[in-house]
Structure formats: structure tokens, C-alpha cells
Amino acid sequence: MINLIDYGFIPTMTKEDTSFIPARITAVHKERYEIACEYGITYAKPKTSIYYGRGNETFPTTGDFVLIQYNNSGDSLITKTLERKSFFSRRDPTPGRGEQAVAANFDYVFIMASLNMDLNVKRIERYLTLSWQSGGIPIIILTKADLGEDFPEQVRAIEKIAAGTAVYAISTKTGYGLSGLSAYLKPRKTMVLLGSSGVGKSSLVNALARKEIMTVNSIREDDSKGRHTTTHRQLIMLNSGVMIIDTPGMRELGMWDVSVGLGEAFGDVERFLGRCKFYDCKHNNEPGCAIKSVLVKGELPQERWDSYLKLKKEAKFSDDKAGYIREKIEWHKSIARCSKQRKKNGDSMGRMGR
Ligand SMILES: Nc1nc2c(ncn2[C@@H]2O[C@H](COP(=O)(O)OP(=O)(O)OP(=O)(O)O)[C@@H](O)[C@H]2O)c(=O)[nH]1
Ligand SMILES: [Zn+2]
């Protein structure tokens, strides 16, 4: 028996449809989902009439809350994807399908980078923008502090571009800094880990899980099911009640619509906008350009401005592409409707002729 509230479910998430029971997607397999619901961990499939064909219900992803028709002798049927409070998406590998959510309903985004490799500031800025846009709260975690001697300096450098986001240096080898994360690692909260391969994402999950197993054994003896597997696209429930979404493909996250995210991640840059003499200033060499002036004075670091422009450009490209794909889908739909109509007419005429 599972109380879905322990999975972060809030009863007011469902208003109507009380005959269906709520569940959370804990893993995504091909066309089949592992779910947590009041009957335990089980499997479900999207209900065909709702998700395929004419239905346009959003396909669920890891972390989604859904409604199901429970089936105790086989796969349950998913009837609705509940509104998401946060999500990350990437371009759907199936051509023409637009964007695809890869993780949903997380509270915090752990942006992870390693202190012993070159700290890629641009990548962190990009992740910050995506995180603010996603609806989750970003936390920057700099890993492998045991390997870098000058890490306080690196932390300060990252804090400069983090615009208020908390930055932590940790080591899963020595345990350094891990206690600083406890403010976020609370029961019913969901984290998603963002970071390049090798930065130590799995090591962090293991470190957190190991700790739990030691302290939790005495508290929750009945919950001994080892769910700490490394299968991809998974929501891992730690014994502490914290959930972690571990999903590949975060590298392909698209800058879909990041207008909000850019503003949050680059508040220090955007506050200078709109102050130029000319309304349509391109900030090149126009007279009275406020941007040029703060760049020259050093009030705005050139790298920050460059990053901002680059991400804005990337976002515009993605937006246009999203628009383009949407248009294409609409076009295909209208063609499909026409040919269906034609077939229907043809069919009925055929029948009449018989
Ligand atoms: N010295 C040191 N090494 C670490 C630390 N954390 C992780 N590592 C090592 O870094 C390597 C990569 O760690 P992983 O946890 O697998 O990294 P990951 O981000 O999960 O990588 P992917 O699964 O490829 O995405 C392993 O060899 C770890 O032992 C740390 O705090 N200190
Ligand atoms: Zn200007």
C-alpha cells in the first residue's frame, strides 16, 4: 500500500474525475509506464481512445501525476495527464512530434558540474535559464571538491553568474558539503539532476541512498524493496522520502520558450535593457546606447552580455522551430482530415452503389 501523498501528490490536483485514481509515473518504458498508486508499484498504458487517434492528451513522462482506471490483473489504463507544475522537454526523436517532456513535477533542479574538470560557465548559464523556465528551483552543485584545492575561488566565480542561485561544493568521496543539501532533501520533494556525464550524478544518488539505508532501516523496516536500480528514465524513491528523477537525454534539452527563464537567469543583464536612447537600439554603435555604456564602464561584464545574446538567439531559433513544427503538424492534420472526408464520401458512395 502506498500513500500517493508521500510521492508529492496534492489532492487538489484532481478536481473532477473522482472515479479514477491518481498515480505517479515512476519509469517510462516503451509504450508502458511503471506507476505508483494506492495499490503499490504497478504498470499502466495510455488509454487508446484518449491518447491516440483523435485524442490530444499529453503523453505522460517520468514524474507526471496521472489518473488511471485500475486493473488488478493487468496493465491499468491511464486516462489523464494532470497539469504539470514543472517540466523539462527536448525535441521528440519521432520527427514531426515537436517537443517531448522528459521529466515532470520536480521541485528542485540540481545543476551539477565538476570542480576538477574545466568549469563550463556557459553551460551553467544555459542550465540556469532552462531551470528557471522549467518551473523548478535551480541549485548549483559543484562536485569533487576533494580534487580541487582552489575550489572556494571557483565557487565565488560561479556565484557571480548564478544571480542569487545557491552554490554548493560537495564531495561524495569525503562527504564534504553534503549536509548543506539537506535543506532541499525533504520528504515528498522531487529533485532532478542536470549535468554532463561523469560529473558525479550517480555518485550523489548513491551517497544519499547509502546514508538513508543506514539510518532508515530502523524506521521503515517494511520498505526493504531495493528500488535503487540504475535503469534510465526513473523516479527513485529514497528511504528518506526524497525522490530523484534520473533521466538521460538532458543534454538535448531544447531552449523552447525561455523568455521567463532568461529574465530570471539574466536579471543582472536585463535590468539595463530599455534604457537606450533609441527604442530599437541594436546595441552595436548607436549613440546613447545604455548597454555599450555599462559594458565600457565594466558594470556589466562582456561575457555575461555575450552569453545572454547567445542564449537569446538559441531560444529564438528553437521557438521558431517549435512554431514551424506546429505549423507542419497542423498542415498534416488538415490533409488527414481531407483525405478522411474523401474516403468517407468514397466509402458511402461505394456502399450505395452495391
Ligand atoms: N574524487 C572524486 N571522484 C568522484 C566524486 N564523485 C564522483 N566521482 C567519480 O567520478 C566518476 C563519474 O561519476 P558518476 O557518478 O558515474 O558520474 P555521472 O554524472 O553519474 O555520469 P553519467 O552516469 O555518465 O551521467 C566516477 O569515477 C566517480 O567515482 C567525488 O566527489 N570525488
Ligand atoms: Zn543599446
UniProtKB/TrEMBL annotation:
Q: Where does the CP-type G domain start and stop, copy by copy?
A: 96-253
**Keyword RNA-binding attached:** yes
Cofactor stoichiometry and binding remark = Binds 1 zinc ion per subunit.
| SUPFAM superfamilies tied to this protein | P-loop containing nucleoside triphosphate hydrolases
Give the superkingdom in one word.
Bacteria
Name used for this protein in its record:
Small ribosomal subunit biogenesis GTPase RsgA
Please explain the role this protein plays, according to its UniProt record: One of several proteins that assist in the late maturation steps of the functional core of the 30S ribosomal subunit. Helps release RbfA from mature subunits. May play a role in the assembly of ribosomal proteins into the subunit. Circularly permuted GTPase that catalyzes slow GTP hydrolysis, GTPase activity is stimulated by the 30S ribosomal subunit.
What Pfam family does this protein match (any one)?
RsgA_GTPase
InterPro entries the UniProt entry points to: G_CP_dom, P-loop_NTPase, Ribosome_biogen_GTPase_RsgA, RsgA_GTPase_dom
Q: Which GO terms describe its molecular function?
A: GTP binding; GTPase activity; metal ion binding; rRNA binding
Q: Where does GTP bind?
A: 143-146, 195-203
Gene Ontology CC, one term: cytoplasm
